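Quick question: what would this complex look like in 3D?
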Amino acid sequence: MNKKEKIILSALHLFAKNGFTETSVDTIAKHAKVSKGLTYSHFKNKEDLLRVVIESTITKMTDEMMRFENFSITSLLQNLKMSLIKNKDIIRLSILLLIHPQTPASVIKLLDSQKLELIELFSSLLEAKYNDKAKIEAELLLAIMDGITMDYVLNPDADILENRINYTIIKYV
Amino acid sequence: MNKKEKIILSALHLFAKNGFTETSVDTIAKHAKVSKGLTYSHFKNKEDLLRVVIESTITKMTDEMMRFENFSITSLLQNLKMSLIKNKDIIRLSILLLIHPQTPASVIKLLDSQKLELIELFSSLLEAKYNDKAKIEAELLLAIMDGITMDYVLNPDADILENRINYTIIKYV
Amino acid sequence: MNKKEKIILSALHLFAKNGFTETSVDTIAKHAKVSKGLTYSHFKNKEDLLRVVIESTITKMTDEMMRFENFSITSLLQNLKMSLIKNKDIIRLSILLLIHPQTPASVIKLLDSQKLELIELFSSLLEAKYNDKAKIEAELLLAIMDGITMDYVLNPDADILENRINYTIIKYV
Amino acid sequence: MNKKEKIILSALHLFAKNGFTETSVDTIAKHAKVSKGLTYSHFKNKEDLLRVVIESTITKMTDEMMRFENFSITSLLQNLKMSLIKNKDIIRLSILLLIHPQTPASVIKLLDSQKLELIELFSSLLEAKYNDKAKIEAELLLAIMDGITMDYVLNPDADILENRINYTIIKYV
DNA sequence: TATGAATGAGGTTTCATTCAT
DNA sequence: TATGAATGAAACCTCATTCAT
């Protein structure tokens, strides 16, 4: 692993653990075992580092989540569950950034685009069953997933999560 | 309105608008048109100010929300909707604080207790219809409301909110 | 002497001695025996401090220089000489700022206005003797004074200065 | 043009445009399209680069200026004028360095020696006309030229310069 | 000769908090 | 109760310089 990647991983870890403003570049550098200066030769500034952190992790995560065995509500929700368990930190950080009023627009854009992708997916999957109600049903399903996600990142209990996702699957298929 | 209240309102407004760490005590004092010193004679420190801000606004908001015409899912969700529209800032701030890793435990406790109250309410309202599934249904309904809330504070559109809440009411009654 | 004045005097002294960029705010604060923070509560930033330093010293100096016994080339040049000896540091700093490519426009404006005042004065004094050549003669006289000034601040020798100013007076009256 | 020369030219350009302290070695290297490392293999450090910049440009400039058609005040002043117009940047930089309190002694020495040469020249040219006053007249003439130079580099207007130099020539021959 | 990753010291600025008045 | 001058720690960022390749 090269030093730039080390910095990104350390930043992700610390931003998720302590928040963006609350994490100093110096702390990131020390955690990655590099100098502060090197951080600034790889990233224009702290905000740029955040952007790259989100960019590189979100894409990786989304790609993973979008690989299905068979294209269905069941496997989509199962994927979401797996991803949530595996990427809890990134996801918590993403929510934090979305809700934080001072998150740079470039980062918000990245996070929003991912959400749009998901709602499209839900819509097309619910079309057969709900016809003209498909869109609002998709929105509600996404709301459920958001609510479950929020609760899980705040209080991570895999059993509870499992339970809720399974129950949701049953309700929707 | 006395000066202490002015400080609390300014703090609420600015914390919601810019975030806790991002709001300086000086900015709050200037916005409330008092001196920095006075702020520190009313509140032990910035964290204490936050606690009081949340304490005083959350209780007020919850009380309001819990006044029903008739005790039913419909009027509860309608109340939630009204409250969401009216108290968007406080609610956004509450979510921000809940998700933020460094929010003091005393504040988290306050916010959590409110959530517990709500889930109790949902449970008892859904018992008649869902029997032994009442608890998980209540959790899912809360998840829906959380998801809808998240989306609304990020992208406040009263029509969309109305639409979703109404559809949810229909689904559950 | 209050602390703000102390900061201004220390800044003047150190800017003149070491240059603007080369003088750190920390050094100024230590020299003035105040904290760095106080400097920033009196002045918006380092550039603002420079502006105030120049503003307050230039006006004081100009006022002094413009007080004549009798309005004549002789007493004007004598005043210039006195001022030069007394305010060597400020004058050296002024030249440094004028010639430095990154001096803020606000500071340049202040310094320029002082020069314009001087050239007006020279012109009116030389009018009687030089008629339509008064303007260019005033410009040359100012050039002489600038040249003498430059040499004096670089190599301060009161006798040489005295000598040159006296010779110049003889040439022009 | 080899890379070392490119570095020197870039440094001259940037030092003149932005000041010595304000120009980073990295900026110079990028402007010269070489690496930072190469700069440090040609020059011991940034100060050394400055010394070489001044050394190589000043000598070239002086040589040029000292080539006369006929040895007279007129042609000397004309040469000075030509040189001033052509080498405005170098000259502005030289003045900046002369006046700057932290310019390394080695650079100051170079710049001073050039001035001494000039005053010798003026003295010998004015001897015939001014006898024992030749030295002080030479000093004043140099002061005039310094003053005119200062004004020109701060506010470059070829017509004004022309006018002043011509008027000075008339006064002295 | 040539590169640029890497370092670490130091500079500017902000801000929570205290305290004399 | 009320003020704001004052402090000092800590944050972001730059840059001269070195060194492995």
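Answer marked as accepted. The domain at 51-172 of chain B is CATH 1.10.357 (Tetracycline Repressor; domain 2).
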